[in-house]
């Protein structure tokens, strides 16, 4: 089954992905990355690999892999 | 299903756009359309001075940085001297409809064989969120702190009402407010680039885009900007294809 892979170094914490995820697999991680942005956390158990986050991410932080 | 970034985008480089900006989504959609049509080697992106220009730093295409408001006319010039290249002009709403409105209209009248991809976020983004011709009635911006008053500031510019009766190849409006709209808009970009390959003439595709920073939805509340788009922007500027010469209506 395909899953999303998150590169949180590129995340800017806009949470557009979390607002469109149909399974609520994305949420605020409570951490910040090296650039100082709040970042999302991806729950791979809930992820169904639909690609909504890949399509909505303006910073290209997601990939969908098999 | 496998989804990964097209090779013409720089994977390891972080873009200069604000968190939640629609430009990143639109640049990725363009890259996917370019890759699908196999145009990577013959593609020229003509950027504006404003936020859209940041695409030049994260893509591998040939880029022309035009003067502000002269993006579409510079792209038309590039197409005339290099008709073998596929040329895309990427102005914002302030550039295409305010400062550069004359080049938009006259390129449409001449039916120049280019694609103008206008990113409409309803404000002048890079200069600090001032009111643009596309700002909605009642929208608060830094230069209209009590909301845009059509009696005082004029009515918003609707490109469909202006160019709708012109003899051009393609006129459509897409949005990036949801994954479904992103897919639909991606198909519109592909269709417009195909029309340029077929030499059909001027294509203008307006894409509604969020500007969370200047709309007052900073950082982690950018998801609220999508609600604003669906409830306000898309109601005022309806989506769809308005002119589609020699093509199907099913994008």
Task: Characterise this structure.
The complex is a heterodimer of chains A (66) and B (251). In chain A, strand 2 (26-32) and strand 3 form a beta hairpin. The longest helix of chain A is centred in the N-terminal third of the chain and has 5 residues, at 16-20. The N and C termini of chain A lie close together (6 Å). Chain A contains two helices and four strands, in the order E-H-E-E-H-E. Chain A has a single domain (3-65), classed as 2-Layer Sandwich (Alpha-Beta Plaits), CATH 3.30.70.20. Helices cover 15% and strands 30% of the residues of chain A. Chain A is an alpha+beta fold and 66 residues long. With 251 residues, chain B is of the alpha/beta class. Chain B has a single domain, classed as Rossmann fold (3-Layer(aba) Sandwich), CATH 3.40.50. Helix content of chain B is 36%, strand content 16%. Chain B contains nine helices and nine strands. Chain B has helices at residues 22-36, 71-81, 93-99, 101-110, 150-153, 159-163, 179-197, 212-215, 222-236, and strands at 43-47, 62-65, 86-90, 115-120, 123-124, 130-131, 170-175, 203-208, 240-244. In chain B, the strands form two sheets. In chain B, strands 2-1-3-4-8-7-9 form a seven-stranded mixed sheet, sandwiched between helices. Chain B has a two-stranded antiparallel ribbon with strand order 5-6. In chain B, helix 7 links the parallel strand 7 and strand 8 (203-208). The mean pLDDT of chain B is 92. The chains are: A alpha+beta (66), B alpha/beta (251). The interface between A and B is medium-sized, with 31 and 32 residues.
